[in-house]
Design a protein that fits this description.
Blueprint: H1 15-36, E1 39-43, E2 46-50, E3 56-60, E4 65-66, H2 69-78, H3 83-95, E5 103-104, E6 107-114, E7 117-124
Helix pairs in contact: 1-3
Length: 130
């Protein structure tokens, strides 16, 4: 008699897969928080984002730090933003009317609408030039 073969399609995700899964989950929750209106601008790069348990967490976009337990215990150790940072980043981008942008060779290219016209503006990347 042979041992039965148990086919199981699930496998343990790699650390890279776990990180991307965490980013997808938190960015989705951040978008939901933004859509609910849970984001308040304080001053400069400081934002207050409503907690799901009540109260607010302070998210700082400049330093990319939040005082929520998720960021303190998981996010900072794994270089993953929490949903509060994602929500604040979405609110910030919407407030400035900039489209999402990316760093290319130390420069960030922004598509900016002015009077119905779209033009490109390049600014130095804060991370690369810090």
């Amino acid at each position: 008699m042979t041992d039965p073969i148990l086919a199981h399609g699930a496998h343990d995700p790699t650390p890279t897969q776990q990180r991307w899964q965490a980013i997808r989950q938190r960015s989705t929750r951040g978008l939901l928080a933004y859509n609910r209106g849970d984001v308040l601008h304080l001053e400069g790069d400081a934002w207050a984002v409503r907690s799901s348990q009540g109260g607010y967490y302070r998210a700082n976009l400049d330093s990319e730090v939040c005082d929520c337990p998720d960021f303190e215990h998981y996010g900072s150790a794994n270089d993953v933003c929490c949903k509060h940072l994602f929500a604040a980043a979405i609110a910030h981008a919407t407030r400035r009317r900039h489209r999402p942008c990316a760093c290319i060779d130390g420069w960030v290219y922004l598509g900016i609408e002015e009077d119905g016209q779209e033009r490109q503006e390049a600014v130095p990347c804060r991370r690369c030039n810090a």
